[in-house]
């Protein structure tokens, strides 16, 4: 083999290994650490703040509504809204809700009525297991966005959970549960994270459409994700071609460290750190007649699997491919 060609192949292999090493792996938590992951991680950025950091740490989160008649046309209600989203920072010993167990009374009250009173009582009764609870505003336009109040986290309380009701609905809600904002790989807080919500059934009401009459489940069933395979007979939430369930909610959070300024020499202003209200995504395109660009669909039923959960991985792979093509072209030229 020509020496130039051999050298080019070696360089391409080194580039591949180097880029993959920089990508940081997947977000998915180690098996057995927590219960079923209840959300899709779209993007995340590893940070440098050690998990034992003793200063003030808080996340500034933006809630983005993506539930619309264009995206979810089947049986779409005439006057949709999101109940006031509620987010809790908590320890390993607290669960707001999970995708495998029966809902608490607080979860049932939000999922069926949109009221946070019972959940607030559960938060207070949890004692040390919970750190902070914040509440947003009810949203009568389900395609708008809002900034949620900042929420503190600590090493003892590194989990965030959130939920909001789809109104009207029997007991359907969106959100995420037990999202650990300390990386298992780097043992540092994430600088930034973007998560997307599935659609969940609280298992407390047997209604099959958005406006179904109240029909309490007896016995109550575990909270379950609504997917294409178990969709109610009126097919709510499905895409226009009924091939999948488009993302109805997106939440992006950015970390602020300490109480000082974010930009040296300039007094702190939330606008310096707040995630933007609107971020266009590839899967938004189809509402204007284009094909859905759900690049995660190839990984199965709308779930993000493998390294492409991290957008940096796809960029790194593209860089690697470009490097390999370039080195191969140069080698052939020299050969």
What can you see in these coordinates?
- It holds the Pfam family Spond_N.
- InterPro entries: Spondin/Thrombospondin_T1 (IPR051418), Spondin_N (IPR009465), Spondin_N_sf (IPR038678).
- This is Spondin domain-containing protein.
- Residues 47-235 form the Spondin domain.
- By secondary structure, the protein is α+β, with helices and mostly antiparallel strands.
- The chain has 2 domains: 1-24 and 314-335; 37-309, F-spondin domain (Immunoglobulin-like).
- 19% of the residues lie in helices and 22% in strands.
- Strands 1, 2, 3, 4, 5, 6, 7, 8, 9, 10, 11 and 12 form a 12-stranded antiparallel β-sheet that branches.
- A hairpin with a 4-residue loop joins strand 8 and strand 9.
- Helix 1 runs antiparallel to helix 4 and helix 2 (105-113) runs antiparallel to helix 3 (117-125).
- 35% of the residues are buried.
- The model is unreliable at 10-25 and 288-315 (pLDDT under 50).
Rg over CA atoms, rounded to whole Å, is: 22 Å
CATH architecture of the largest domain: Sandwich
The total beta strand count reads 12
Approximate shape: globular
Instruction: Write the CATH homologous superfamily of the largest domain.
Output: F-spondin domain
Can you give me a brief rundown of this structure?
19% of the residues lie in helices and 22% in strands.
């Amino acid at each position: 083999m020509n020496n130039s060609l051999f050298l080019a192949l070696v360089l391409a292999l080194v580039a591949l290994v180097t880029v993959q090493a920089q990508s940081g792996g997947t977000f998915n938590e180690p098996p057995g650490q927590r219960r079923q992951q209840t959300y899709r991680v779209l993007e995340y950025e590893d940070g440098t703040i050690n998990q034992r950091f003793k200063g003030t740490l808080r996340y500034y989160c933006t809630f983005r509504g993506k539930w619309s008649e264009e995206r979810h046309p089947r049986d779409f209600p005439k006057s949709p809204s999101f109940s006031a989203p509620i987010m809790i920072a908590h320890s390993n010993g607290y669960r707001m809700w999970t995708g495998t167990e029966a809902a608490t009374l607080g979860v049932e009250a939000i999922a069926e009525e949109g009221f946070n009173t019972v959940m607030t009582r559960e938060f207070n009764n949890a004692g040390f297991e919970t750190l902070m609870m914040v509440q947003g505003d009810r949203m009568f336009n389900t395609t708008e966005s809002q900034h949620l109040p900042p929420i503190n986290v600590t090493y003892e309380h590194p989990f965030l959970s959130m939920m909001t009701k789809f109104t009207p609905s029997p007991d359907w809600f969106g959100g995420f549960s037990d999202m650990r904002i300390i990386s298992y790989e780097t043992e540092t807080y994430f600088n930034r994270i973007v998560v997307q919500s599935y659609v969940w059934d609280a298992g407390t009401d047997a209604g099959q459409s958005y406006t179904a009459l109240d029909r309490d489940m007896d016995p109550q069933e575990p909270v379950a994700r609504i997917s294409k395979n178990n969709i109610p007979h009126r097919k709510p939430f499905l895409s226009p071609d009924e091939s999948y369930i488009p993302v109805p909610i997106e939440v992006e959070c950015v970390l602020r460290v300490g109480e000082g300024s974010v930009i040296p020499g300039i007094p702190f202003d939330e606008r310096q750190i707040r995630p933007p209200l609107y971020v266009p995504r590839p899967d938004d395109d189809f509402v204007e007649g284009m094909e859905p660009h759900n690049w995660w669909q190839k990984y199965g039923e709308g779930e993000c699997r493998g390294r492409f959960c991290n957008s940096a991985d796809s960029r790194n792979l593209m860089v690697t491919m470009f490097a390999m093509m370039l080195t191969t072209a140069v080698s052939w030229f020299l050969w």
